């Protein structure tokens, strides 16, 4: 299988809030990573092109890569867009709708701690400029621990809000924390989304599941040599693959703790990389 690196970023900033700092890349490092993609012969394609290949057998360039960004931090406007524009690169931005900034730096009706987030006006401008806008839930919960009613609010409610704000259909979803199971994925399909990204810290491929697209999390401590291996198609599994037993066990444990009113595995207690990597995605 041809490995396709689908990178997931969060914040790109020099001085992020402490809670997102482990998943923040500095602007200089981000620019260097984009240059390494080009130097490694990678063609950055829209996520929609990968989805077309997964669903319809659409063509891909010989060495494709995809850039995705989760949550909707305001530094996407300040630090990411200039670098993408300079290189004419496409990207997908997944929005937690309850965290969109209306005033100050709070994250509104979401489980995310305070941070500087994008406004709806900025998101609409990005959409008009060609950045693909996707959904990332309403409040950023662990979807695989929610009852059906909660799932509908987080998946279908997120879609309705985005479509009301943007004035057109939105197609792609990303699971908060990378967490999903068959029930969550079925709900996403039935809500009208055409694809969904997980995490998995693995390469995608032309044989990947379009509702469980594997991504590679770029963290603050991701060494450049590891990033270079990813550019070269090395250093990680390639989807599709069976879920690891420890991932299943971790889900069952999180679900049980959630039902007892003491959830784990969120922003303050992200799972280890051996369980379900991804952190606050």
UniProtKB/TrEMBL annotation:
Which biological process annotations from GO are given for this protein? carbohydrate metabolic process
What sequence ranges are listed for the domain NodB homology? Answer: 63-281
GO MF terms listed in the record are: hydrolase activity, acting on carbon-nitrogen (but not peptide) bonds
Ranges annotated as spanning the membrane? none
Give a GO cellular-component term.
extracellular region
Which PROSITE patterns does the entry link to?
NODB
Coarse class of the primary localization is: secreted
List keywords of the entry alphabetically. Answer: Signal
Which Pfam families does the record associate with it?
Polysacc_deac_1
Region span, Disordered = 260-281
Q: What's the domain of life for this entry?
A: Bacteria
Q: Where in the cell is it found?
A: Secreted
Q: What is this protein called?
A: NodB homology domain-containing protein
Q: Which organism is it from?
A: Streptomyces swartbergensis
């Amino acid at each position: 299988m041809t490995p396709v690196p689908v990178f997931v970023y969060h914040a790109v900033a020099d001085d992020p809030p402490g809670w997102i700092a482990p998943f923040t890349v500095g602007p200089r490092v981000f620019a260097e990573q984009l240059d390494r993609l080009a130097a490694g012969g990678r063609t950055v394609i829209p996520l929609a092109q990968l989805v077309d290949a997964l669903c319809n057998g659409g063509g891909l360039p010989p060495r494709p890569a995809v850039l995705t960004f989760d949550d909707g931090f305001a530094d996407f406007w300040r630090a990411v867009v200039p670098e993408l524009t300079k290189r004419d690169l496409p990207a997908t931005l997944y929005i937690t709708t309850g965290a969109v900034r209306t005033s100050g730096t709070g994250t509104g009706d979401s489980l995310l701690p305070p941070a500087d987030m994008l406004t709806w006006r900025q998101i609409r401008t990005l959409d008009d400029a060609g950045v693909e806008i996707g959904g990332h839930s309403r409040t950023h919960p662990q979807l695989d621990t929610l009852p059906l009613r909660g799932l509908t609010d987080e998946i279908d409610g997120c879609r309705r809000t985005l479509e009301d704000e943007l004035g057109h259909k939105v197609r792609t979803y990303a699971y908060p924390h990378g967490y999903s199971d068959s029930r969550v994925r079925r709900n996403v399909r039935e809500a009208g989304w055409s694809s969904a990204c997980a995490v998995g810290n693995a390469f995608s491929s032309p044989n990947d599941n379009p509702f469980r697209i594997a991504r590679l999390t770029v963290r603050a401590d991701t060494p450049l040599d590891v990033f270079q291996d990813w550019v070269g198609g090395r250093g990680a599994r390639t989807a599709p693959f069976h879920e690891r037993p420890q991932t299943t066990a971790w889900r069952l444990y999180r679900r049980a703790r959630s039902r007892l009113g003491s959830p784990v595995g969120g922003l303050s207690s992200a799972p280890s990389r051996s369980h379900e990597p991804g952190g606050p995605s």
